[in-house]
Amino acid sequence: MDRLVSEHYEGVPRAELEILKNFAVNDLVHYFATRAGVYSRERFSEEGARRLLCAFIERARHKLWDIVSEWFVLWKIKWNQRVKLVFSDKELKQRARAERPERVNISRVLGRERLRELKLFIIANLIRSGEVAGVEQIAEFLVHDELGNLLNSHGAREVIRMYTSGELAYRLLERVDALRRVSGPLLLLKFDFRRVR
Q: Which residues of 129-149 are buried (b: 16+ CB within 10 A; e: fewer)?
């Protein structure tokens, strides 16, 4: 990944390259996990996920560089389209004010395990719909925003019923589908140059 990031982002300072590389590696792991079917299993487990992912990579070993290179070109396009870098707290607050979901403790309502499964389900569907950059952060936002809105308007019991019936997953899939009609940034990242020196 170092090689791809360095080749595609010549002249970018080393600290920024590290940030890009970390995002790219994380997104690539989610991409492979989705292609390997890791996130669509009945019950997600870290150990099972690692085994499936290793088996997938082993089967694709002879064409792995080609897969990663092609994926990276798409990732770079999506990164440039979907991620907006901001450089000050003031700019971040201005841009995020209308977009920030109210923070509610949703893990108390659904539990950490259900939230993780929901997030991985959304990550896989983001990737299937062509989003490959910042998928973990976008999924986190969608899940927290939707659950926060539902908790505020319907309460915890209704949210649990919606989760159990699949209605919550359907609502989230509609939001993932709606992203296709959005051409601008979905993710704001604040970059602090003082911490890189």
A: eebbbbbbbbbbbbbbbbbbe
Residue 85 parent element (H or E): strand 83-86
pLDDT digits 0-9 by tens, 71-115: 999 999 998 888 776 655 554 455 444 444 455 577 778 888 889
User: For residue 38, what are the domain limits?
Assistant: 2-195
For residue 10, give the DSSP letter: T
pLDDT tens per residue across span 24-83: 988 988 888 888 777 776 666 667 777 777 888 888 888 888 888 899 999 999 988 887
DSSP letters of 100-149?
Answer: PPPP--THHHH-HHHHHHHHHHHHHHHHHTT--SSHHHHHHHHHHHHHHH
Q: Return the HEC string of 164-192.
A: HHCHHHHHHHHHHHHHHHCCCCCEEEECC
- CA angle, residues 185, 26, 131, in degrees to nearest 5: 40
Domain count, the chain: 1
Element (H, E) at 83: strand 83-86
User: Angle 156-124-50 (CA atoms, 0-180°, nearest 5)?
Assistant: 105
- For the CA atoms of 10, 93, 97, 163, the dihedral, rounded to the nearest 10 degrees, stands at 70
